[in-house]
Amino acid sequence: MKLLIIDDNEAVLRSLKLVFTGVFDHVVTAKNPQLLPAMLSAGDVDAVLLDMNFNTCRLDGSDGLFWLTRIKSSPSAPAVVLITAFGDVPLAVEAMKRGAEDFVTKPWDNDDLIDKLNRAMEKCRMKKAEQSAVSEANLYRERADERKNMTLEEIKADHINNVVKECGGNLTLAASRLGINRQTLYNQMKKPPHTHMK
Amino acid sequence: MKLLIIDDNEAVLRSLKLVFTGVFDHVVTAKNPQLLPAMLSAGDVDAVLLDMNFNTCRLDGSDGLFWLTRIKSSPSAPAVVLITAFGDVPLAVEAMKRGAEDFVTKPWDNDDLIDKLNRAMEKCRMKKAEQSAVSEANLYRERADERKNMTLEEIKADHINNVVKECGGNLTLAASRLGINRQTLYNQMKKPPHTHMK
DNA sequence: TCAAAACGTCTAATTTTTAGACATCATGTC
DNA sequence: GACATGATGTCTAAAAATTAGACGTTTTGA
């Protein structure tokens, strides 16, 4: 498990790092989010604990929202927990709308923060699992659409392939499952990909 | 468009109703959420504007969270926007986690609130559309699983049925699409549902 | 090591598919 | 309404595919 902690206050950074050392295998800290894209590109970050204010002129959290959106733009994005000293309700709501898993205010409680990070990662895993289930299901939908324009010969060849694969190459079993003669199965498999008879 | 407004303060209720009359076709108000399940059962509510505190002894919003969860337990749940005078960040975050589309604090701005309701409904529509797309795609996945255990004869019959349906019953066209002789298509369709040859 | 199962191949009988032809029926276009 | 175009239902005879069964060899698993 790898955690990225981004906060412009060095004392906070040290303190947070201490909290999470032992909880995460790797804890990486950074004083500003400029290097975030590079750090995420490796794809091995499981969670990001992100402060909302970096630009001392802007304490409205828009920096944090910007980087949150940036992090969450990837489908393999890590869990993101936002942390801020100047948090108000509208900011928290906006952050949640943009996909943050949690939003906490300083000062924080160590155990509570650990708990929130764990839950955030779990939630993020769930979201990803759901998303991949969706894309997988969509593949099936696309296949069904393609089937509509297939010739009977192609459908047969396709199904034969599937069943043979399912039977681990056992042609006798596959023929039995398909309800056809073993010889016929041989013939069908000997055919070149697209043979238009006559 | 139908809006449900739940708030224990009658003055607030009247005021909110005024705001949304003209924006929604129907605006129904209630002083407490006890009747919510009954009001939602008709299924014609598009949005709920829900106050977080009804029990005067408990101002932590737990009542609101309870009812939020209750409303969102149905797959056809309406959009929910929470409104509270005692809102803090943790409560707002928890509400968003539980599926609220938005969370606003009193006092409110009329135009802003209208805007938030509209966006909430749009968001809710998007969620539902996504959800129904998922279930539809899952149907296709199930069909593909069933196909695995089908006989070649059954697969052929199934595909023939689909293509014929696709061609609106035009057998000549269907035969052409299937890449088979018209006569053959007649023969296949004349077969009783399950004929195991010989 | 040994038996059961799978493989590859063959044959001859059976069944299916095919192209083509033909008259009839529906379609919609002028 | 007349007419052309395309779909339908049916037939034939040739071509092609499928079938059960058989046989020796190879794999597999106990």
Can you describe this structure in just a few lines?
The structure is a homodimer of 198-residue chains. Chain A has 198 residues and is α/β, with parallel strands linked by helices. Chain A contains eight helices and five strands.
Architecture overview:
The structure is a homodimer. Helix content of chain A is about 55%, strand content about 15%. Chain A has a five-stranded parallel β-sheet with strand order 2-1-3-4-5, sandwiched between helices. The longest helix of chain A is centred in the middle third of the chain and has 39 residues, at about 110-150. The first copy, chain A, folds into two domains: about 1-130, 3-Layer(aba) Sandwich (Rossmann fold), CATH 3.40.50; about 150-190, Arc Repressor Mutant, subunit A. The first copy, chain A, is elongated, with a radius of gyration of 27 Å. The first copy, chain A, has about 200 residues and is α/β, with parallel strands linked by helices. The interface between A and B is large, with 40 and 40 residues. The first copy, chain A, binds a DNA duplex (30 and 30 nucleotides) through helix 7 and helix 8.
CATH architecture of the largest domain in chain A: 3-Layer(aba) Sandwich
Q: For this structure, what is the CATH homologous superfamily of the largest domain in chain A? A: Response regulator
Mean pLDDT of chain A: 90
Tell me the β content of chain A: 5-15%
Structural class of chain A: alpha/beta
The main sheet of chain A orders its strands as: 2-1-3-4-5
Number of domains of chain A: 2
Distance between the termini of chain A: 62 Å
Unreliable stretches of chain A, pLDDT < 50, 5 or more residues? 194-198
